[in-house]
Design a protein that fits this description.
Pfam families (chain B): Fer2 (PF00111), Fer2_2 (PF01799)
Structural class of chain B: alpha+beta
Order of helices and strands of chain C: EHEHEEEHHHHEEEEEEEEEHHH
Number of helices of chain B: 5
Domain 2Fe-2S ferredoxin-type (chain B): 1-76
CATH class of the largest domain in chain C: Alpha Beta
Oligomer: heterotrimer
Chains: A alpha+beta (726), B alpha+beta (146), C alpha+beta (271)
Number of domains of chain C: 3
CATH architecture of the largest domain in chain B: Roll
CATH architecture of the largest domain in chain C: 2-Layer Sandwich
Distance between the termini of chain B: 44 Å
Helix content of chain B: 25-40%
InterPro entries (chain B): 2Fe-2S-bd, 2Fe-2S-bd_dom_sf, 2Fe-2S_ferredoxin-like_sf, 2Fe-2S_ferredoxin-type, 2Fe2S_fd_BS, Beta-grasp_dom_sf, Diverse_Oxidoreductases
Radius of gyration of chain C: 19 Å
Strand content of chain C: 25-35%
Radius of gyration of chain B: 15 Å
Structural class of chain C: alpha+beta
Keywords (chain B): 2Fe-2S, Iron, Iron-sulfur, Metal-binding, Oxidoreductase
Number of strands of chain C: 14
CATH superfamily of the largest domain in chain B: Beta-grasp domain
Shape of chain C: globular
Strand content of chain B: 15-25%
Strand order of the largest sheet of chain B: 2-1-5-3-4
Protein name (chain B): (2Fe-2S)-binding domain protein
CATH topology of the largest domain in chain B: Ubiquitin-like (UB roll)
Number of strands of chain B: 5
């Protein structure tokens, strides 16, 4: 293979590095108008009256839209920042002047901000029609849970919690919509242009063929842009009604409240263990702080189903409860339930080791799934892998024992609190279908259309690698187009670490189809051609792709020059071991991440340079969850970390050095490409590795210190460290 | 108010209200490499060189920049091209939204004779990146400083 | 993100600035790094913004027995100052972009309770020269900071110069969640040590009150000390007991106290 597996440099970079990549705010159709939203300052309130009369007459205002457009359903707002009206003006400065003139009468209602308070009878209801604040309540189980607890030598229980985080992609959300009287065209900073197309077509009662949605360059998404948001539909409606181009781009403060948040899962657990540290059963409840609308369906459920992790636990019963609160709605954030599950199970395994006086590595060895495929007690079947072998190899490659010894020496010689932490994970990636359209051009080059929606991953380059290898042609001849609903019948997009597996496999199938089609035309050569290196061979006669295309266009042969392939992907399961080294200030509890190493079995690595980039970025986000970030609401439901000055996205100062390794003997997925997803792996593995490292460090002061939440902020760490001493 | 901006060597005379931010004026003049990423002057996506110093253009009134020489990420000279090549070689850009600001900070680091990794980290610490974890950016810049 | 409308005037002399700033609703624009964020978030709505950027005569640093810093000196201009207090403080402010434009005078007049220059100048025992409608006056830094974002400057007064004797010994310890953030707690110590004893010392802390304050009991304990390991610990204890820090979502009172103790200890060790 010429390209797959190689660190091919990105074709996306040229336009980005010249400053010419177009993001949604760079798209400025002629005569475009600017939309803004009047948003609730209250976390929970009835909207008594929306008076836009002063707004209408304000300088530069072209149109105003009140709740009749669909804002504040049920006549109330459920979270601070929820929109109640939209204003369209010809200039953004004038727009923001005009927004201030809206007079909205609210009747504040008691807000519910804590999931446990929200579940109590008599709690204020976020959605009255539900009758309670529980949006979803499911139980997942398998195996003989009661039997396991009866047999258990020990039962451990506890609560683990992850904080609410803000995905904070560098580009805030935005959308442009243009309606020319017949066709609606939209550009959106989104992961899901096809979903937007469907919802907007429905909302405007337009045929799908009259709606085109384009995903331009997107400045990061991480799962926060995979919903169709109310603003996107509202702006489309405005464009439709005004027959103009309308643009909305969120300010950062606005984005903090209007774009979905992540994590915020809590686990109450009980585990049954034997004396050897084998976990016999796990029972518990995962609670999600779902926010004001249940947009992020199934996060608690995913965490529940993946709770056993890579460990062979015979029985489990896990309840997944999603609770409504008066906060910004929760949705997917890089990992979407799996980082939380991994944090939970890794903390539990460490706790088991502690309670039984066993080594943390040894307990993992004893519990790792030995043979795959394996179906966990909640019914999830892990496809391929060899966890024990990869685990051992990882320990060696990452230098776990050497680092532990070094940390010990630094403590003895210099009193430094250095901690080394490890986490092992299995994660579920890929799902659904992906479509690719592929065309052979007259000059033998290949045009590829994908429904994938990259937001920084480098997928366009990776897909070109895959196609170039399948067609055995130089990569310069392959051009991949993405992000436009006009190109491909339908698609799901980039999320869930699915792109190179689902999209790459679809591309391989399309390429094979194209070869098969073109080889029909090569029967001009009067034989069954053999395809090699971009050329159809028949003995001593040959025809290039170019020759075949021209023949078809001339009418000398028949073949489809454009093919379409739809691939239905099954989930696949990467496995890996990550390690973190941190230093803790004994006098302050401040934690400095020093080093981060990863060892991942992700099947076929299509581009190791891009794959390592995913590890670096994902790991820093997980490190940030472990140590820095937290979206905090006060008792009034005000988001008191309302912008990047108060919400601690790490800078270069806070980042450790990364060392990335991929398994020398990977276990492929059963797909044409053989890859497994990597986009979320590091966010999944990093938080528990760092937490484990911090705990390792502070146990030199307080041997019983146990971290049960994220973030482990300095004050929390400080108190844990010194609590035993009073 | 009439102001004059020299951007990447091009002279622009514009009529601006005093409240207009430099980032918006630059973008309206077509320099869309300059990005808006926040509203608290934290993220640095709007970083440009103004009279040889890196500044956050979202935190400058256009009228304050009257008569200034500004460099944005659309600029090209031998050093900037070297930086671009190093960024590409090192996979220092993912979504690209922070990249304009990073290029400017990198350019300034090189021009001001920075030598160490510490200086690079300090130099880009006013540019937030959510995608790369910073390591590849730091490596790319170090290559150019050599 | 979009400032409200305001009248704007650029001035070229201090006299002009004083005249313009005497109007109600007028604010001074120096580097803009503190003012413009307030405008963007529409937290303030001044009627007139007076741009001091044209007053070239306020950009200078004169070294001598007394160091004199023009109020419009940018932070970055002090990053390599021969005076350690100035150098160390300048380097810890925000990031390089902020330092390109932000000014020493602007920072002091803005008086963010967690700002770096305020606590550093408090430790240095600086004096601040202001010019206003009633003429020029010099205010000791001890009398300058009144509360959060509140100083002794009267309407129409412009800070023109900061004067200080460069302390022979200095240490600046800043605790912040991220390296470049405003301080959670910061400690600045300036001192002179003669024949192994502390001849004089000023200890200032931010993050423990609604403005930077001097820890006078700790100073008293440090006076004359040889700053042995044990002495330093004792002085730090005094400092910790002396402060009455607030509790908020960023840190509890007792944790701030702990940081003050560590900060004073480390600062004295570094002297």
């Amino acid at each position: 293979m010429r390209y797959i597996g190689k660190p091919i440099l990105r074709v996306e970079d040229d336009v980005i590095l010249r400053g010419r990549a177009q993001y949604v705010d760079d798209i400025e159709p002629p005569g475009v108008l600017y939309a803004g939203f009047v948003r609730s300052p209250y976390a929970h309130a009835r909207v008594v009256k929306v008076d836009l009369s002063d707004v209408r007459g304000a300088k530069g205002v072209v149109a105003v839209f009140g709740p009749e457009l669909g804002f504040a359903p049920g006549g109330k707002v459920r979270y601070q920042g929820e929109a109640v009206a939209m204003v369209v003006a010809r200039d953004r400065y004038l727009l923001y002047d005009a927004l201030e003139k809206a007079v909205v009468e609210y009747e504040p209602l008691p807000a519910v901000l804590d999931i446990f308070e929200a579940m109590k009878p008599g709690a204020p209801l976020v959605d009255e029609s539900l009758g309670s604040n529980i949006a979803s309540d499911e139980v997942y189980q398998g195996g003989d849970v009661e039997g396991a607890f009866r047999e258990a030598a020990r039962v451990l229980e506890g609560r683990l919690s992850t904080q609410r985080v803000i995905p904070a992609a560098m580009e805030p959300r935005g959308v442009v919509a243009v309606y020319d009287g017949a066709m609606l065209t939209m550009w959106s900073s989104t992961q899901v242009p096809f979903d937007i197309k469907k919802e907007v077509a429905k909302a405007l009662d337009l045929p799908l063929s009259s709606v085109r949605v384009i995903q331009p360059y997107v400045g990061g998404a991480f799962g926060s842009k995979l919903l169709v948001y109310p603003e996107e539909v509202a702006v489309a409606k405005a464009a439709y009604m005004l027959k103009r181009a309308v643009k909305w781009v969120a300010t950062r403060s606005e984005d903090f409240k209007a774009t979905t948040h992540g994590r915020a899962l809590v686990l109450d657990y009980k585990v049954a263990v034997d004396n050897g540290g084998r976990i016999l059963a796990i029972e518990g409840t995962v609670y999600a702080d779902a926010g004001a609308y249940y947009w992020g369906e199934g996060l608690a459920d995913t965490a529940a189903k993946m709770l056993p992790g890579p460990y062979d636990i015979g029985a489990a019963r896990v309840r997944a409860v999603s609770v409504l609160t008066n906060k910004t709605p929760l949705s997917a954030y890089r990992g979407a339930g799996r980082p939380e599950a991994t944090f939970f199970i890794e903390r539990i395994v460490d706790a088991v080791a502690d309670e039984l006086g066993l080594d943390r590595i040894e307990v993992r060895r004893r519990n790792l799934v030995k043979r795959l495929p394996y179906t966990n007690p909640l019914g999830v079947t892990y496809d391929t892998g060899d966890y024990p072998a990869v685990f051992e190899r990882a320990l060696e490659k990452l230098g776990y024992y050497q680092l532990k010894r070094w940390a010990e020496e630094e403590w003895k010689k210099n009193g430094r609190l250095i901690g080394v932490g490890l986490s092992a994970y299995v994660e579920i990636t890929t799902f659904g279908y992906e479509a690719v359209v592929m065309r052979a051009e007259r000059d033998g080059s290949i045009t590829v259309y994908t429904a994938l929606t990259p937001t920084g991953q480098g997928l366009v380059t990776a897909l070109a690698q895959v196609v170039a290898d399948e067609l055995e042609i130089p990569i310069e001849k392959v051009r991949v187009y993405w992000g436009d609903t006009a190109y491909v019948p339908d698609g799901i997009g980039t999320m869930g670490s699915r792109s190179i597996t689902a999209g790459g496999s679809a591309a391989i199938l399309a390429a094979r189809k194209l070869k098969a089609e073109l080889s029909k035309a090569a029967q001009l050569l009067n034989c069954e051609p053999v395809y090699r290196g971009g050329v159809f061979h028949c003995g001593d006669r040959s025809a290039t792709i170019q020759d075949v295309v021209k023949a078809v266009l001339r009418g000398d042969a028949e073949a489809q020059l454009t093919v379409e392939a739809i691939y239905h992907a099954e989930s696949n399961f990467p496995f890996g071991v990550h390690l973190a080294v941190v230093e803790v200030g004994p006098e302050t509890g401040f934690v400095k991440p020093l080093l981060y190493k990863s060892y991942d079995d992700v099947g076929q690595v299509v581009n190791p340079l891009l794959a390592a980039g995913q590890i670096h970025g994902g790991a820093l986000q997980g490190i940030a969850q472990a140590l820095y970030e937290e979206a905090i609401y006060d008792e009034g439901g005000n988001l008191i970390t309302p912008n990047l000055a108060y919400y601690y996205v790490p800078t270069a100062h806070e980042a450790p050095r990364f060392e990335v390794y991929f398994a020398e003997e990977p276990h492929p997925s059963a797909t044409p490409i053989g890859s497994k997803g990597i986009g979320e792996a590091a966010t999944i593995a990093s938080t528990p590795a760092v937490i484990s490292a911090v705990e390792d460090a502070i146990r030199k002061i307080n041997p019983r210190a146990r971290i049960v939440k994220t973030p482990a902020d300095p004050e929390y760490v400080y108190k844990l460290m010194w609590s035993a001493r009073g | 108010m009439k102001i004059t901006l020299k951007v990447n060597g091009n002279i622009h005379e514009v009529e601006v209200e005093p409240r207009r931010l430099l980032v918006h004026v630059l973008r309206e003049l077509g320099y869309t490499s300059v990005k808006v990423g926040c509203d608290t002057a934290t993220c640095g996506a709007c970083t440009v060189l103004m009279n040889g110093r890196p500044v956050k253009s979202c935190n400058v009134l256009a009228v304050q920049a009257d008569g200034a020489e500004i460099i944005t990420a659309e600029y090209s000279d031998e050093l900037m091209e070297k930086i671009r090549e190093a960024f590409k070689r090192n996979h220092a850009a993912q979504c690209g939204y922070c990249t304009s600001g990073m290029l400017i900070s990198a350019y300034h680091l090189a021009k001001s004779g920075a030598k160490s990794e510490e200086e690079v980290v300090e130099g880009i610490s006013g540019n937030l990146c959510r995608c790369t974890g910073y390591q590849n950016i730091i490596n790319a810049i170090k290559e150019v400083l050599v | 993100m979009y400032p409200p409308e305001f009248e704007y005037v650029k001035v070229y002399t201090v006299g002009e600035a004083v005249r313009r700033l005497s109007a109600e609703g007028a604010v001074a624009l120096a580097g803009g790094q503190s003012l413009i964020p307030l405008l963007k978030l529409r937290l303030i709505s001044p009627t007139l913004v007076v741009d001091l950027g044209g007053i070239r005569e306020l950009r200078y640093v004169q070294y001598g027995d007394v160091v004199k810093i023009g109020a419009l000196t940018r932070h970055y201009e002090l990053e390599n100052s021969p005076c350690p207090l100035l150098r160390e403080t300048a380097r810890r402010i925000g990031d390089q972009q902020i330092r390109s434009l932000g000014t020493v005078g602007g920072s002091l007049a803005h008086a963010d309770p967690l700002g770096d220059w305020p606590v550093a100048m408090l430790a240095a025992g600086a004096s601040l020269v202001a010019e206003g409608p009633s003429g020029r006056r010099e205010v000791e830094v001890d009398d300058f900071f009144r509360g959060p974002y509140s100083t002794a400057l009267e309407r129409g007064e412009v800070l023109t110069e900061v004067r200080l004797k460069c302390p022979p010994r200095v240490a600046f310890v800043k605790f912040s969640r991220r390296h470049n953030d405003f301080a959670l707690v910061a400690v600045a110590v300036a001192a002179e040590v003669e024949e192994g004893h502390v001849k004089w010392v000023r200890i200032a802390a931010s993050g423990v009150a609604d403005k930077p304050i001097r820890l006078k009991k700790a100073e008293a304990a440090a006076l004359g000390s040889r700053l042995s390991k044990d002495a330093v610990v004792e002085i730090a204890e005094v400092a910790a007991k002396e402060v009455e820090p607030p509790s908020d979502f960023r840190a509890s009172s007792e944790y701030r106290r702990a940081l003050v103790k560590v900060g004073v200890k480390r600062a004295l060790e570094r002297l």
